[in-house]
Sequence to fold (262 residues):
Amino acid sequence: MSETEKTQAPKMATGDRAILPEGARTIPVYIMGKRYEVPETLTIMKAMEYSGFKFVRGAGCRGGICGACPTVYRKAGDYKIYFGLACQTVVEPDMFLAQIPFYPANRTAYDLEEIGGEADAVHALYPEVFRCVACNNCTKACPMDVDVLAYISAVKQGDMAKAAEISFDCIQCGMCASRCMGEMPQFHIGQLVRRIYGRYIQPQAEHLKKRVEEINSGKYDKMLEDLTSMSKEKLTKLYTEREREPDLAPSGEWMPEDTQYL
Ligand code: FES
Fold:
């Protein structure tokens, strides 16, 4: 994230929605070590924008999905360190917070076809999984409540399906890695495992395979060419008048009149 810090807080939030409820009470928070007064109802992200920070990095979906906004904070009089997503966590009085929008991980250039789907491939690429001391700091740091230690343990045991399932809700924020005594990038290990699961373990959907073959055979080339060369007006008309499945059609029974592209 880069930010422009202003000497005075602006009157309105500068994010996607300028929320400043009427009569909102303000509370003090400390952002990157500096004190600001912010409306108590805001999320950390909106409070930072209210305080003059501009998100160029460190914000994406604003909906708790993309993992771009992990934030670390402490509370006054509390020894604990807390983790949250800036777009989801509401500010509290005397919160001391810092954004850590990216945590480094460095082994992304692998070819799934080459490395194959065995656990050995993961162990070879990430031998540091065996440095895990089961401290569980990774799990405590996860803003998505993923049991990170459990999926890393499954990776160690070679159970890729279990590791993929447990890590499914990971949003790649990297907070687990920031606390790891074994210095491993758990979030990337989980991602590799889910890719292996999708490529080698999960049953393949036959209809999807058939559709990919059809696409590769050029079945839709002409249609795509026609659509991409169409005027906006014609496209809008086509879209508005398209044949649609009725809302209450019994499941699996409805068929469009034009079946040439099915
Ligand atoms: S901005 Fe995407 S999770 Fe917060």
User: Anything to note?
Assistant: The chain has eleven helices and five strands.
